[in-house]
Every structure is written in C-alpha cells, then in structure tokens.
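Reviewers asked in the last cycle whether our approach scales beyond single polypeptides. To address this, we selected a multi-component target totalling 767 residues and predicted its structure end to end. The input consisted of the following lines:
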Amino acid sequence: MMIKVTICNKEYRLENEDNLLKILHLIKTTKNQSLSYRSGCRSGVCGSCALRVNGVEKLACKTVLKDGDVIEPLKNSIVIKDLIVDLSTQQKCLQTAKAQLEEKADAVITPIDEKNIDLQSNCILCNSCYSSCPVYEVNPEFIGPFALTRTYRYINDKKEKNTQTKIKTVQTNGIWDCTLCGNCNMVCPEHIDIKNDIMMLRNKSVQAGFSDPNMASFDGDFDTGLDFGFNPNGF
Amino acid sequence: MIDVLIIGSGGAGLSAALMAKQKGSEVLVLSKTYPTQSQTAQAQGGINAVLKKENNTDKVEYHINDTLKSAHKLGDINTIEYLCKNAHNTIKWLDDIGVPFSRDTNNNIAQRKLGGASNSRACYSSDYTGLKILHTLYDTSLKENIEFLHEKMLLSFIVENKTIKGITYLDIQTAQVKQLLAKTVIVASGGYGAIYDGFTTNSNATTGDAIAAALKVGCEISNMEYVQFHPTTLKKNSILLSESARGEGGYLVTKDEKRFVDELAPRDVVARAIDEKLQHGEEVYLDLRHLGLEKIKEVMPQEYNLALEFSGLKLDTDLISIQPSAHYTMGGIKTNLNGETNIQNLYAVGECSSNGVHGANRLGGNSLLEIITFGKLVGENASKKAVETIQKNSSLDTLNQDIKYIDEIFNLPNQMNFYSFKKEMGELFYKNVGLFREEKSLLEVLHQITIWENDFSKLGITDKEKTYNTNLKEFLEFSNMLYLSKAIVLSALQRKESRGAHYRIDYLSQNSDFEKETIIYNNQNEFKVEIR
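The resulting structure, written as structure tokens, was:
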C-alpha cells in the first residue's frame, strides 16, 4: 500500500513496509542517502533506533507506519542531524544516579529477589522515556526516568550493600522533581513501570528519613495568602 | 599516554577494559556505537558453565568434550580447557558485579540445556542474558570511570616494525580522521555477519571493520569460511528466536505438524535439515504450543514479544514460520590462548578473533562465556604488556593516508549505488556461501566479487556533509565487507571437505588432511590461503 510519510520535515510517498526502520532503510538506500538515523539489531534490544512518530516515542524497528505519519527525532536532546540526537547526557545521568552495584553484599538471592529487579533490568537505554519527560523543560539537570529506574533496580538488588548512598543521591534533581505524569511508562518499549519505581524510591526515601523538599517549603500557614493549589503528586 | 586502547565496547571490550583498569592501566574504549547498542545485547539463550554446587552431575570435562565435539577437531584444546575450567569463575564475577541471573528453587543460578550440550549448563537471565550482562558491564564501567570515545570508527592500525603503535579512526560525528597512540591495542569489535545482509540475526554494525584492518597490516586471519547459521529465525526478517525455545522443549515441524529432526542436535545439523525443507518449497515451523503460555512467558518473555511484535504471531497458539540465518562468525584474527596476534602488542578477543575455542562450529552458550572469560584474560595480559612497553612517537604516514582517503571518498564519482551492491552481496552469500556450498557456486561468487572490486572506483557517496555522515560510514563498512567477502570465499574454496558449519556438497565427508586451520593473510596486496 502506498503511504505518505513526513520524515524530518520532508515528505516521501512510498510503498509501506513491515516497519518504520525498513522504510528508513529503503529511503536511505534508494531515495535520499543523506537521511541519517541510528539502527543496530533491528529487533528491539539495542535501543538505537528510538524516534518520535506523531509526537510519541517509538522504536523504528517495532513500529508499523500508516498514511500521514510524521517522524521526528527524540526531544530533550540536541539534534545532531535528522533523527540523530546527542546521547552524551545518558552517561551523565547514569553516573549521577549511581546506577551501579557499589558494594557487594553477601546475600542469598532467591527466585523472588531476582524477579523483583527483572523488569527494570530489561531497560535497553533507548532514551524514549528521557525524550517524553516534561520535567526537562524546567530542569535540564533532572536525573531522569531511565537512570532513576536503574538506581531503583540496584537499591532493590539484595546484592547491593550500599543502598543508602543511592537513596541520598536521588534526592537532588531526582525523585521529587518527577511530576508522576506517567509519560515514560507510556513510551517504554520494555513496558517498565518507571513511574511506580520512582514512587517506590520516594517511599524508600521517606523510610530513610528524607522528605519531599517541595513539601518542606510548605509551612502550613494559610494566612500568607499564597495559593498552593491541588498537588496531585503529593503524599 | 594510553596503556590499553580497546576497539569495541561489547561484552569482550568492556570485560577487558574493567580488568585492565583494575590492574592499574590507563584505559580508553573506542567504539563505532554506544556500548549498550552492541551485538552482545542480542544474545538470548545463556552462558555455559559447570557450576560448583552440591550434587552437580555435570563436570567440566563434559563441557570440554561437548565443546571439542562441536569444534570438529578444529578446536584448540588449550583454549577450550581454559574456557571451560574458568567458566565458574566467569559466572561468579558477573554475578558479583550485579548480573541478575535467574535462580532455581534451591536459590542456585538456574541453568538450562542448549543444543549440543550433554547437561543443563547454560546460566541465564530469562532470555535477556546478553542484554543484562552487557548493561551490567556498562554500569560497572561507569562506576570504574572507564573512559569512552563513542561513535568513532576504526580506520587503520598503525604498525611499525611488526609492533602496534596505535590506530587511526573516523569521528562519525564530524567526519574528521584522527590518530590515537597506545602501548597496547585490544581488538574486541565483533564479527562479520552483516556480510549476509538481509539474512542475518546480527546487528548492522557487524561489518568486520577491524578484521579487514588487521588483514591489511599483516595479521593472520583464520577460519573465515566458518559461519554459523542459527536454525530458528523469523522468516522474512531473520529475527532470532533463541535456542532456549528448543532447549525448553520446543519442536520443529513441517506444515502437517510432523517433527523431522532432533531439535537439540548441533546448530549446523538442525539448520541444514530446515534449509533442505525450505529448498524443496516446504515451510518449517517452530512449535511451542504444548509448553503453555505461563511457561513461555516465564522462561522466554523476549521471544514471546519478538514473535508477536515482528510477525504478529503468538508462541502459545500459533506455529511460527522460520528460516535459518547467519548468526555467528567463527573466523577472525588469529590469536593464541593469551589473545596475542602475530603483531606485537596487538590483541584480539571475542567474535572478531579466532583463538580455537569454537573450531568448526560454536556450541550454543559458549559465545557469551568466551567474550567475558577471554575479555578478562586479554585485558589483564595487555595491561601487563603495557608496563614493559616504552612508547615512542610514530610516523604520521597512516594518518595522512587515511585523511587523504576520506577526502577522496567525498570526491568519488558516485555513478553506481553501493547499497545495491551490499544487498546483492547478502543475497549471494546466503545462497552460495551459506549452509550448502560447492566449488562452482563459490567461483561464481568470487567472479562477482571481482566485478564489484573493478566497479569500486565508480561508487561513492551522495551525502557531502561532514556532520554525522552515515552515508560515509556505511560506504567504509561496505568497503570492509567487500574486502572480507573475498577472504571468506577463498577460504571456503580451499577447504575441500565438509566439517562442522562448512558443508560442501561436492566434498561431503570430513577429510583428515583438513584437520587444520584455514589461514589467510595479505602478501603484497594478494591474499594467500593456507591450510595449516
């Protein structure tokens, strides 16, 4: 079936393929050799072909196009060329969030323990969640969804002895900056419940004696005349 | 000064980097992609090891025997013994850095049986084993402050007096050619499966760039004809359905739902049985329906999703149409047990190397084991070597040549489309240098390669921009593929026998005269092939 698609503001009319990555490849190899995009495994595990279709983050290899679709690069990152965005923030977010096993604990790992971190450790670092996150519009330093989920994965890992440092790390530009909008959940190709992971991190933080800094500034004095409004994300 | 420069950031490269750094070396990892985009992410089934645990009926010697059997007398007993004896430690190391291996009911690391194995020996993380290993290695690398250069493509090795001095590379983001000097260099850049374009489970990035570069500077390359075809990939798009599908009890059936092959026979045997059916116009299906949805989702969630998302079929209710696809390249830069090549201070490890661990066919579950076990060993070896190496300035000849070459590519006439050549190459290799080979069809491929070589000067690139020019990168990749394609065909022609993954319909039996490696090297711009 012939379809019309717009890729980086350029219109193409072509025969539809099984998925968007095949269309990009077809355009690249037969119509426009300068079209630039990343791709690797073609099977949804390398995370390199993430982009936006009609404003929503998708993996090109897993997306079937329909007539009129508009393809754009990911958001919240500098666009280097066409669908290629700068990924250097990825490393920074992961390092800031201490998303790693810092100190090995001697623990017996049961099948249930392993299941507890199974979904989070399926993350392919495609940056879809990062692109979908509205917090970056107000805080470019936000640690962000994939890094927070990964930190939670290690905090929840019985092998990690040093969970407290991680909990402390995610207090600044981390869990309390999240608006819990759930965009990240909607776009995650691995169906990771990132929003829930962030809420769990908040619970663990409260248990560890931390509190929401946004609430801390709330002194409860309604005579000030300030309107705090309804906070849907508050605890 | 860089002590250990690592080309490639998959499982082998990151393991080497972590070990070299631990030993006190200045380490730099240079890679064409980002680490988590590498081929290692695609390994699904598992990683073999005989674990030291109570009442284990499996033994290291059984693992050695299974590997030797799969290697069809082309394996190296020393490397195989090293691999199998160190497997337990490899798993322990990975488990300790945080790889979330699946557990059994006794809280031990769970293991499953893969094809060609005499026991349930493959440790796994559901069917995301490679992905979880790779990401954990990356997390650990960031923790250890390993320095990375992402999206830089190796162009040439700088070799003086048969000693590696450094490399030149293309910065993909700027199209600039740069040079890096290092005391030692480890090549961990993956295989050459992308030559089977359109018929491979491998990433688009597996274009054998470093193997081609190594050949050009005098490295010996071995067993290039040995390409493993995975029996079960989705028809039309070659997406891998892991061996765990059969390991867990899946069947291979024809249209009338009859089984026709022992599903757990070695991959080459299963793949040829399937290909024969396909060549006779029959369809072959993977049948997992009897396993039930619960078990399928428990032990192979990724495969369930892959089948659903890429073919619209459900593993628990549908027969899945399959075909074999090029999956793993056994050939590569020849090394000894220590990862040393015939160039001083140049090491190779992982799929780009050939150290005798797989021989004529790789056992399922041994590739992840190889990249981590030897990655660590080679990282340590290179680190030691760096200590005793004094680096002197080297000439800028290679850098200047490569700058000139990249400039020339921008000015090539571009009268013919290299992407068409690449597609034709994939089709031709799948058909003639695939599961069944013979002299006549191999010579046809060789003839075609000569035509492509002659037409090379008519190729070129359309995109003339310097910023993130993937057209240029892919042109360079094609050039490497073309160079290696000849090495594969010449090696396949030379091996006049059938052994493991190399099956000649004009020489059906295994011949003891060929119980040796196929070595290919560059002698004054001519390939020399020797069986020795």
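The mean pLDDT of chain B is 96. We regard this as preliminary and will revisit it once experimental data from Aim 1 are available.
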